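Subject: design request, 363 residues
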């Protein structure tokens, strides 16, 4: 059983780390702008024959099926075909925002709440340029014979285990659904869901792609209350880059997007193969099981990565409505930020305009 991180196990620590990183990064970017660049501008070089050297992607979590599209982009040669000599995929847990701002990686894969928090609090020069998950995987997990929390009314009188890193998101969930905190009990817990499985609590702040699968594989009949369906929709598995990269490494980022879209197209069309690749090739050091990784791959492929919007506009799409919903979720946690401060979907629009064949991901 792999304990799940919260919406950002590193969220509060990230704010502290990023304060110094942001200041250093902003100074470095200013000096670069003043001095100019000695390297040729990559703009206009993307496409056949383009060469971008090496690239790097910071994962927020360990190398499990969460990143199966990246593995397939690597395994099937899509990164190479896009013009990369190699793409280093760096496992977490990690602060993807700090890694991106510091210039240690080109792209970080995180979520709109963590990245939005850093932008709102610290003015971090970051943007989200796409999202793998159209629906975030956070859920209140219970068991059919203990808790059975299938709707908001079922929360009354229940005891819910909530990790410290998830507390602000849990409080936002209660506020946005007008639930009196005194009508239930919030119990501080760690990440191992054994207290839920043993019947010590009624519900558990969880991931659809982690603890819920653990319960299912143990035959415990899980019941989920997904936050995305009950007042807190926001995008996750978001691709975060610096403002400077959008301006000066635009074609490189677009090439990465092309390869990523191709990799995720393969992954969602054969989740079983993606899970096997995860266990055998990319995550053998993490004590993964083919049963759990296959279920995660299936859940991602049918319920999180694809939507009516992606069917119409392609993978990684973030519609105007979903952007605003993410902003509204941040507002519910007490943060003020605009969609234009958090998102830049112009690169993705250019990718699909230049590669319309990528729109047809469903085979």
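Subject: RE: design request

Done. Sequence follows.
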């Amino acid at each position: 059983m792999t304990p799940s991180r919260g919406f950002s196990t590193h969220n509060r620590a990230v704010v502290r780390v990023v304060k110094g990183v942001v200041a250093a990064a902003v100074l470095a970017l200013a000096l670069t702008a003043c001095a100019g660049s000695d390297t040729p501008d990559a703009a206009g070089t993307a496409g056949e024959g383009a060469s971008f050297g090496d690239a790097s992607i910071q994962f927020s979590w360990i190398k499990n099926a969460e990143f199966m599209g990246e593995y397939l982009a690597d395994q099937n040669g899509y990164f190479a075909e896009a013009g990369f000599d190699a793409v280093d995929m760096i496992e977490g847990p990690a602060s993807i925002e700090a890694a991106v701002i510091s210039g240690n990686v080109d792209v970080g894969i995180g979520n709109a709440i963590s990245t939005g928090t850093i932008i709102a609090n610290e003015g971090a020069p970051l943007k989200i340029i796409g999202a793998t998950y159209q629906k975030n995987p956070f859920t209140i997990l219970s068991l059919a014979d203990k808790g059975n929390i299938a709707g908001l009314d079922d929360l009354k009188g229940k005891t819910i285990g909530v990790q410290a890193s998830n507390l602000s998101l849990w409080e936002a969930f209660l506020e946005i659904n007008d639930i009196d905190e005194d009508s239930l009990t919030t119990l501080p817990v760690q990440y191992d869901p054994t207290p839920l499985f043993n019947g010590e609590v009624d519900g558990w702040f969880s991931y659809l792609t982690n603890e819920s699968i653990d319960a299912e594989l143990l035959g415990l009949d899980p019941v989920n209350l997904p936050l995305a369906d009950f007042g807190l929709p926001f995008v996750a598995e978001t691709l975060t880059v610096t403002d400077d990269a959008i301006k000066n490494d635009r074609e490189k980022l677009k090439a990465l997007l092309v390869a990523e879209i191709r990799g995720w197209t393969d992954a969602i069309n054969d989740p079983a193969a993606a899970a096997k690749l995860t266990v055998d090739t990319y995550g053998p050091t993490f004590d993964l099981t083919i049963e759990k990784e296959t279920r995660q791959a299936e859940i991602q492929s049918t319920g999180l990565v694809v939507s009516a919007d992606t069917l119409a506009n392609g993978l990684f799409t973030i519609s105007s409505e979903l952007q605003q919903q993410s902003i509204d979720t941040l507002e519910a946690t007490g943060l003020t930020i605009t969609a234009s401060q958090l998102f830049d979907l112009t690169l993705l629009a250019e990718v699909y305009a230049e590669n319309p064949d990528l729109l047809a991901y469903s085979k």
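The CA atoms of residues 72 and 263 lie 5 Å apart.
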